[in-house]
Amino acid sequence: GRLAPAESAAAQVLAEEVKKRTGLTWAVTTNWPVRGNVIAIGSGAGANGWPKSLPARNAVDSPERRAEGFRLAVQAAGKEQTVVWIQGADSRGALFGVGQLLRSLSCRKSAASLPGDLDIATAPALPIRGHQLGYRNTANSYDGWDDRQFDQYIRELALFGANSIEGIPFHDERKSPVMPMAREVMNRRLSEICARYEMDYWLWAPADFNLTNTVKRAEHLQQHEALFRDCPRLDAIFFPGGDPGDNPPELVFPYLEDLSRLLAKYHPRAKIWLSMQ
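Now predict its structure.
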């Protein structure tokens, strides 16, 4: 059937990362192979139509049933068809399970191996596990990255369990001399990369000007709307009440109300977070 983005990416990521480390080319298919060892990646509790299934554990509150949890287990080790199961509670869990598999593999040229008794079930302790990647002059390092480097970096964050990225689209108007891409292009690409791996994407978006300046306020809202329209995935706007910014609540709240209407036009499920700094 139609796979969720993170589950689809999970199999491709596994094949690509194993090839980098071993030179092996592992085929990706939705059909169960007749012969040979199999790494079976699935998510949710629904039947997938495969001829084999991972025996369920008896525990009622098994980690692989909790949000973003997974189980990684080896079945029939050394037999005619050994199966390595990655069963995610959801599509993100499937991707995190691939991360655990990559960390568990022993890789060398033309070979990859696992312990035959491997059976790991785990789920995240915290619902938000994010990392700020502000493509701007202040970064002093990744302002020199292109979108392929960001893709690899965000992929690796996901493989170690991160589920969200915070961008800084507008703050710091100075252009970095080493930027290979325009900021507006990279802002969109970061959103696209997060959509591929089903990672939350939110923006740190202060108002570091006086909100009584109606011209500047209108320009700021228009700039935000253009980005909202451009991003395939956007989950939240994080607005700091200060650092930077020095506007009182009676100006901040009407501004955020206007911003929320623009956000809802393009991302109706997105939220606005206000920090009372």
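The longest strand covers residues 38-43.
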